[in-house]
Design goal:
The complex is a heterodimer. By secondary structure, chain A is mainly alpha-helical. In chain A, helix 4 packs antiparallel against helix 5. Classes of the chains: A mainly alpha, B alpha/beta.
Chain lengths: 348, 508
Amino acid sequence: MTAMTHRKQTLLDVVTICLLTVVISALLILACGASPVEAASLFVKGIFGTKASFAEIFVKACPLILTGLGCAVAFRTGFFNIGAEGQFYVGSIAAAMVALGLPQVPGVVRIILCFVAAFVCGGIWALIAAVFKTRFNISEIIVTIMLNYIVINFLGYAVRSFLMDPAGNVPQSAKIDTAAQLPNLITSTRFHAGIVLAFVLAAAVWFLMEKTTVGYELKAVGLNQRAAACNGVPVVRSIISSAFLSGGLAAIAGGIEVLAIQKKLMEGISGDCGYTAVLIALVAFNRPLGVVLVAILYAAMEVGASSMQRQLGVPSAIVSIIIGVVVVLILGKELLRWYGKKNGKEGA
Amino acid sequence: MALLEMNQICKAFSGVYANDHVDLTVEKGEIHALLGENGAGKTTLMNILFGIYSADSGQILWKGQPVRFASPKDAIAAGIGMVQQHFSLVRKMTVLDNIILNLRDNRFVLDRKQARQRVRALAEKYGLTVDPDAQVDSLSVGEQQRVEILKALYRDVELLILDEPTGVLTPQETAQFFEVLRALQKEGYGIIIITHRMSEIMAISDRVTILRDGKKVAQLVTAQTQPDELSRYMIGRELKETYDVDTPPGTEPLLSLEGVSLPRKKKGHPLHDITLELRRGEILGVAGVEGNGQKELAEIITGIQRPSAGRVMLDGADIQRETVRQRYERGVVYISDDRLNDSLVTDMDLTENLMLRDYCRPPFSHRGLLDRKAMLQAAKEKIQRYQVRSSGTSGEATPVRLLSGGNQQKLIVAREISDRAQVVVASQPTRGLDIGATHFVRDRLVEQRNAGKGVLLISADLEEIMALSDRIAVLFGGRIVGVLNRQEATVEQIGLLMGGVTGKEEVG
């Protein structure tokens, strides 16, 4: 197959998937007893209606971009990090501890320290699985999922004990003082500085993956670890650094959530974005810029759907269903292509 | 009436004819050889007969009746058996269970006793000695092949297709295998044997059909032809079978292994106390049946595996503790026998694959930043110099998986053989390549030798070893059982060593 027809085929696939998605969404809305046309108009109005609602897309996309990037970097290296959720938690705990624990440090410095702590701790958390994989050949999928449970419950313990707000009796930390909060950038919206950071990091990851020898190594290791080793590409180093970077990115998302949105540490802080991130990376074929795009689209659908829910009573869970359908369609397409390749294989 | 008649068979894959109006007739009690280069369409033709592919057009007459098999199951039921080049045995099951696996008349409760008797009887009749209760993965390759044949015979086939059956056998095993074929022939079985070895065709076949580029170019009676005629038909041009290795080889030692050992692991093969010297300006052939430690030997030299004992010296320096990359920087390059797994990242493009060794140093990167322009330029130049042809229009950006085997190998050769190379470890470098690509690769190896570098040529193909090597080491059971000068070596002598028969005693 030449590159030209290949590209055409890809385009056709994308159009097909979009059409199928629209049809299935319409059917789901009909099943709720609402008019798809009305729902669609509310959906669009929900997104573009006001400055605040449009900015909300980026607020929601921000953690998805970072955790999605984390997954993409790891997947590219063949390290199936399903632990973005846990690494997000690690990041939020680390950021909260620094922000609350060093009140005498001036704001900007404290924010930077928060992110450094989050990145390093999240990276180390992912590194545990990488060490298990490279040393003992234990599946990173299992280990990262187990690590998720540990840190999620550790956060529950922390907000009931050493991090609990001494002034209250709910399981959450004290409020982070304004100096260490990430500033809001656009008035009357929730658009905060963390969003800018997410885009900057996305650009940095893109640069790393496409333009540097490290990115080339990660790609080679991910596509054929054996050949990489036989050609002298440092395989263990690649897996370790990809895992560290992956965990660090997800943890930054956790830090932003604490410093910009919640302004305190509490249970369920991730909104499960670490799991959504896996899907986003898959749909984006592990490409950094693809992750940004898919995350924004996903966030837009969420924002639109919540307006739909408010005004028409159509459950916003529809978005989750649709995302699920899209993922199945994309994976199904890959499967079909693989199957076709296998059957069309030429015998000599 | 012929046992099998295939008329005007056509089969195209994405517009390219793999079989273009091919005819083939096999009589009862005939051994019919199917000869052709890689990609000539032999396997495709047999896969059509066996029901794996369906022909686009053409007719198959089986015992005079037109047939069309939808699957191998149908073909077997009609009485056609095929032994594939890569065996399809369940390694963790016994010989007997493999033979009766998926039989049509199996009951819910298996009657192993009766089956065992029948297998024994068949084995005895045709000299296919193998223990029915042995587990398959404890058997040698030759024995596994016997199991495959027994499997077919057990299903009462009348025609047996054998795809490159001798590729994995020692000369002695081959001779034994031919005895089996003759016994089957006497019983009236029809046999189609796919091969590219002239000597075997001359020795065993009654008639031979030659395919070239998907077309039947000749059908000859073996007794009335000569190898050079077969070769002319097969290639369509005269072969240059001699190589310029007649200048005297160097004497200065370049690479030496001293007492290198590797313990037996779950996968792979052990090595025992290997001591070997590779000199400048020589090709040292390593002969041996596959799976006697060749891969391990290559990987210990290139640094992919570490030996448990012994030393590896290059140019007087101990490189024992050095990584793959450090050894590459000293000039140890590697053409692996497993292109797709060891050498290439098939989802990356030509440029990226050509850079797998050198991406980390100037001019291809500076301080960790890749210089795509320099990479592309170097790739273009190599692709042109080594005549790597990619099928697509995207040239250097074509994913390597879309390349043919020959072009993939040229790409590897282009990457590995550079000015940097000092020691070229080439493992089965021409396996699966057509004649043109084979010559190309061999010429490059000889060039390296003549340029004063050392080439370690590991090959199961004795003709290749004999044609290229200055000295020949024979590996058997993880030991070097002999090192001979080419002038004094004979095929028989090497064949015996490959089978573990040394002058003094039987090894293993």
